[in-house]
Structure formats: structure tokens, C-alpha cells
Amino acid sequence: SGTLTDITWRKHTQRLQQVNHRRTNALLKSLPEHVICVGRDGIYRRIISSNPNFAIVFPKEQVGASIYDVLQLETADQRMVHLQRSFVLHRPQIHEYQTVSADGQLYYLEESVVAIGAKPNGAATAEDEALILIRDITPYKQLEAALLASQIELQQLERRFVDRTLKNIGAEFRYATFLKRIGGNYISCNQAFAKLVGRSMYEIFGKSDYDLFSSKIAETLAQHDLSVMNLEKMLDFDEIFERNGQPRWCLVVRAPLYDEGGQLFGICGTAVEMG
Predict the structure, then answer these.
(1) 127 C-beta neighbours (distance < 10 Å), count
(2) pLDDT at 55
(3) CB atoms within 10 A of CB 208
(4) What is the pTM of this model?
(5) Contacts for 53 with CB less than 8 Å, ≥ 6 apart
(6) How do strand 44-49 and strand 235-243 relate by DSSP bridges?
(7) Is residue 266 within 8 Å of 187, Cβ to Cβ?
(8) Angle at CA 221, nearest 5°, toward 216 and 222?
(9) CB atoms within 10 A of CB 166
(10) Each residue's pLDDT tens digit, 240-268
(11) pLDDT tens digit string along 171-205?
(12) CA pair distance 96, 109, nearest whole angstrom
């Protein structure tokens, strides 16, 4: 024996609650840390904080105070400039700046100044006011700085690696030499290789074989690179390069390149023109 109960309405209600919960959380995350209502004269009229734990929360006592009473002179001047621009230009003014909290922590803030009910002719009235929306963008700035530092470090490591490799094989070696990434882009070559393909070293840097030669020749060279990387050993090939559209037959020795950590980095090659 048993019972059967229709709970469709309950499941439907639960799904609606879940959807509303996600929407509410998304809305709360999008809110700025502070919303400040300020007069055109720079006097704070109302202050709303959505994050009471934010280190630079404006106390209620600052309502009625001037921007210059609350902020450092440079920051106050900047805010007043954007405040006046919002009234004159009739569009939001957005800027970023740094500030230090009472406990000495550095914050990056994004501030949007939006004039409310500004007159078309820009005439000032006692009722003029604007909303200042302040958002804490410190995590994004920290991530941006970390990514930039990583890119600079990677470029420096790559440059040292290339310089050392070129020094070992002889950058001015009478045979044409080149270095390529795993992806096939040239990262360096000597003057002899540039002369072989009829390009300047600047034109070759960062390019692939598909940028420099016909698709048929480029495909063959790419297959040779792939063979070297798959077998991870030095191989020699009879290859054709092009100079001014004319084929140049060469004996080319290609070898795998490894970085300081022992990871496959790319391909180095030496080409000797035949005939």
C-alpha cells in the first residue's frame, strides 16, 4: 500500500527561490561599497554603505561636512573636478585613485560621479546634487599588477635564454641560424639567415613560416619541426627556403631547445645553402 502526493508546486517554488537567491546575490555583488549624495557645493547630504567592513567607511557624522573636510587635498580636488564636470557635460565621470585606510592598508577605488537633475544650460541651483558611487577594485588591481610582473619576468627569462643560446651557437656564425617557439614563431635569427630568406631580422621576429614563405614550403618546414619535437632529437633535412620568390636549397639541421627547467621550449636550426 502507499500514497501518491503531487508536489509539483513545491518543486516549482523551490526553483523560483533558488533563481531569486542567485539574482539577489548577483545584485548585491554589483553594488558599490558606498553611495554618496553630495551637493554641487561639495557638501555631503546622504551616505549609504553596503559594506560595513570596508576600511574607509564614511561615518554618519560626515553628513553635512565638505569634501575638503573629509578627504586629503589632492583627492578632494580630483573629486570636485569630476563633480563639476558631471553637471556641465551631463554624463557620468569615472576615475580611479588610491587611498590608505586608518590601519595603513592601500586601497584602489573606482569612483563614478553622476549629476542628478542638472539643468541643460548648466546653471547652478541650491538643489543641484550628484551621486558618487565608490567601488573597491583593489583585488582587480592586485591581480593586474601580478599578471604584469609575471609577463615582465617571463620576457626577461626568455631574453636571457635566447641570448645565451645564440652565444653558444654563435650569433654571427657564417651559417644561417634561427630559433623558434614550439608554436612555430621565430624568436631570433642571425644576419646570415635573414640574408638567406631576403628579409630583415626585424621582419622575421615573431613571424611563422606561413608568414614568410608559400603555404607548401611552410607546411613542409612545420612538419620537420614537429618531427624534431616528437622525437626530441637532432635531425637533418633537405629543405627549400624562398628569397624574393625564388627557391633556395639548403641542408638544415634542426634540434630541440629546452629551458632551464628542462621543458621543451622550441627549435633551433642551422641552414647551409647548397649551390
Answers:
(1) 10
(2) 43
(3) 16
(4) 0.44
(5) none
(6) unpaired
(7) yes
(8) 95
(9) 19
(10) 888 888 888 888 999 998 877 788 888 88
(11) 445 678 889 988 889 988 888 888 888 988 888 98
(12) 6
Please choose, from the candidates 162, 98, 109, 155, the residue with its C-alpha nearest in 3D space to the C-alpha of residue 132.
109
Tens of pLDDT, residue by residue over 24-68, are 555 545 556 778 888 888 888 877 776 655 545 445 557 788 888
Task: Tell which residue, 234, 265, 233, 252, has the closest CA to residue 160.
Answer: 265
Whole-Å CA distances, 219 to 18, 184, 239, 241: 54, 11, 11, 12
CA dihedral angle for residue 96, residue 100, residue 105, residue 111, rounded to 10 degrees: -30
Write out the three cell numbers for 131: 551621486
Tell me the C-alpha distance between 67 and 59, whole Å: 13
Euclidean distance between CA atoms 132 and 34, whole angstroms: 8
Other C-beta atoms lying within 10 Å of the C-beta of residue 71: 17
**CA-to-CA distance for 241 and 239, rounded, in angstroms?**
7
